[in-house]
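Side project, low priority. Logging it here so it doesn't get lost.
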Amino acid sequence: MRMDTIVEAVRTDLFDRSKRGQEKYGTTLDRQDLDAVEWAHHLYEELLDAALYVRRLMLEIEKLTPPEKVPCAEIASDIVGLPHIRALDLSWEQRLELHGAVQGVIGKSLGKTV
């Protein structure tokens, strides 16, 4: 089997992030002191951060690319593929719906109809 460099890069990122988290917080995700609501709150905060990062990227893309050339569908695919979104365990239909919604938001922010 051929090595997938992207998978290996993500594995390395996950390991490094886990190590940093253990050093910073002194625990792992195996901790038992949080309930489901608290875990959901952590995820919510991470998703808010992700929204901020996406908006920042959109601003950078707008600077570099004329609005009529921004590939809204491709950006939406990248967003829906983010680990935070994948962690939501959405059905295929829910993913398609989310993709369309994200694509619409991107297009609207750029003044495009998608």
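Brief comment: The helical segments are 5-25, 36-64, 72-80, 83-86, 92-109.
Revisit when time allows.
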